[in-house]
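I am going through a labmate's work and have reached the protein record below. What it holds is a sequence and that sequence's fold in token form. Please read both lines and tell me whether the tokens look consistent with the sequence. Do not assume that whoever made the record got everything right. Thanks in advance; the entry in question is below.
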Amino acid sequence: MDAKQYWQEYLASQVESQASDAIYAVDQFGDSPDLAEELAQLVRSQIKTATCSALWEWETAGEALPEPGSKMVVLDGKGQPCCIIEITEVSIRAFNQVDAQFAYDEGEGDRSLASWRREHWKYFSRVLPQIGKAPSQTMLLVCERFQVIYQKDSIETID
């Protein structure tokens, strides 16, 4: 099933017509199929309720930043839709200003701030050179919080 079909099933599942055929993103977390699969499962299990990316990535792509209420079809490591999330909060903060609660909410590793810093530094060291940037302690991050609003297999929606 492709993301558009998945989105249409989500819309059809909405008893009250709160959902619309509005613009939505389609993306996966991480920079490899294995990482995308791992993170998709954390999102589906609602362990991962936050994510971040470098502001430079958004600027380079020329994309508008996400806003609360934005929805995204999350793809797994095989590129298949696995759930839909809704952004609940967006903030910009420096890498060295990410706190322990945000690290915990990202749901990765042992969920500690030390683990978050180590693993995200590795991640940014892989992806930022592709856009001519290098990670720094003061680089700005787009920090998002979200909630799962739809999973096809459980037909659960949250509004």
Q: What stands out?
A: The chain is about 35% helix and 25% strand.
